[in-house]
Amino acid sequence: MNSTQLSTLLSDDKNSVWHPYSSTHSDTPVFAVKSAKGVYLTLEDGRQLIDGMSSWWCAIHGYNVPELNDAITQQLDSMAHVMFGGLTHEPAVKLCKKLVEITPAGLDSVFLADSGSVAVEIAMKMAIQYWQALGQSSSQQSKLCNKQKFISLRNGYHGDTFGAMSVCDPVTGMHTLFSGILAKNYFVASPACRFGEPCLEEQLEELKRILETNHELIAALILEPIVQGAGGMKFYSIDYLVQAKNLCKQFDVLLIADEIATGFGRSGKMFGCEHANISPDIMCVGKSLTGGYMTLAATLCSRKISDTISDNPPHTFMHGPTFMANPLACSVALENINLLMTSPWQENVKRIEQRLKNELEKCRELATVDDVRVLGAIGVVELKEAVDMPSIQQAFVDAGVWIRPFGKLVYLMPAYIITNEQLKKLTDAIFDVLKDDPKHGKH
User: Fold this and answer.
1) Is 21 considered catalytic here?
2) Catalytic: which of 157, 186, 240, 411?
3) DSSP codes of every residue in 337-365
4) CA 317/CA 307 separation, integer angstroms
5) Going by C-beta distance under 8 Å and a sequence separation of 6 or more, which residues neighbour residue 47?
6) In this structure, which topology does domain 71-341 adopt according to CATH?
7) What is the CATH number of domain 3-61+344-436?
8) Nearest one of 327, 360, 340 to 87, comparing CA atoms
């Protein structure tokens, strides 16, 4: 593409395309990508960028992966799509069986979805319909059918659809504009106990109090295990997760684990729940499920939940996306999981973790850096003030890297295949850009 064609493309983009979390009048630059391979993005102007985002955390094997390419190509030869109502197909069955095998014990029913937000919607509907169904077969019908609210952690993020928005942080979250129309749920403070620390009894008092007082109205506690993602990139105590699970059991409330960001190795375990050795009642997975190739997610639940819903009127779960279990997506997801399971992903994530700890530590010397934290293949530099997106985005591209900060957070979630040299270019870029930026550098 020559310079004139590129200029036309970017002009058409500005006139016709509305990008996520942006204004149509945004002055934040947009960069046209020509191709991607490994951890590199090649722009239309010929520049190559090392990708530190793995395309919003999903391209765990990098780009243009031969095994994943082959999975889609082979599936395309038989069928690209078929409705899932009354029909089934091998890729979906094998994928669901594999998900049951690799997720925590007791998650035996799999409902496939379109995206992470939809998986959360399904989980919430599943929890409400479970209590409705249980109430129909119980002498406590009126009491159980009242369990329609949720409790979640502040600084949490669970998606952009209406149900998901209602359990995102209501004050500091990105959905405050819709607070007047969203369902009103319960919130507790983000865990003050950091990863690696014990969780003191007083740090659970608020959660215990709300459950004790309102458990007859609460269908489920929903949380992101160990890592709070887009709500603030916070890593919290394993013990908090253990005790939260115990409290849910004590007060007869379901536990929904939103593993959309944490699933498939990102935190150092295959799933975040494994840090605490717990099994939730319902689990959502997405993002890395297809290795970044296609949109697909899944909501898993216990057999007790799926059977209770199925055994009581209306004897069906009330959800059914048109593109549910798309064969292309299921095929690449299955191959993606197989590729992950046969790769040295644990060693790679540990290597990335150690490098991030060593190389991001120097950012603490910058006066406007508030915190530096690392867990698994996640590295976070938290600033005291929000970044200036137009200038910092351009600065990172000029440094030959793709890093997409948000708010006060400059972070990395690279593909597991990244080399030490490639990772160092990312960490060096963060330090250099923040150091040279008059808003964020030394004073």
Assistant:
1) yes
2) 157
3) HHHHHTTTHHHHHHHHHHHHHHHHGGGGG
4) 10
5) 397, 400
6) Aspartate Aminotransferase; domain 2 (3.40.640)
7) 3.90.1150.10
8) 327
Question: Dihedral through CA 413, CA 399, CA 26, CA 45, nearest 10?
Answer: -110
**Whether pLDDT at 443 is above 50:** no
Side chain identity at residue 186, one-letter code: Y
CA dihedral (18, 19, 24, 27) positive or negative: negative
184 catalytic per annotation: no
Tokens of 403: 């890093």
Rounded to 5°, the CA angle 31-290-231 comes to 65
Q: State the average pLDDT for the chain.
A: 94
Neighbour tally for 148: CB within 10 Å: 15
- Name the token pair of 172: 């500091």
pTM attached to this predicted model = 0.95
The catalytic residue among 114, 169, 258, 281 is: 258
> Looking at 12, 14, 21, 37, which residue is catalytic?
21
Count CB-CB contacts under 10 A for residue 209.
11
C-alpha distances in Å from residue 345, one per residue of 60, 290, 340, 354: 10, 16, 7, 14
Of 125, 287, 411, 416, which is the active-site residue?
Answer: 287
Tell me the domain boundaries of the chain.
3-61+344-436, 71-341
Say what the pLDDT of residue 437 is. 72
pLDDT in tens, 284-314: 999 999 999 999 999 999 999 999 999 999 9
- Of the candidates 233, 219, 238, 221, the one whose C-alpha atom is nearest the C-alpha of residue 278 is 238
Placement of tokens 């990708």 in the chain: 51
- Is 258 in the active site? yes
Token pair for 136: 């129909």
Q: What pLDDT does residue 375 have?
A: 97
Asked whether the predicted pLDDT for residue 238 surpasses 90, the reply is yes
Q: Is 293 a catalytic residue?
A: no
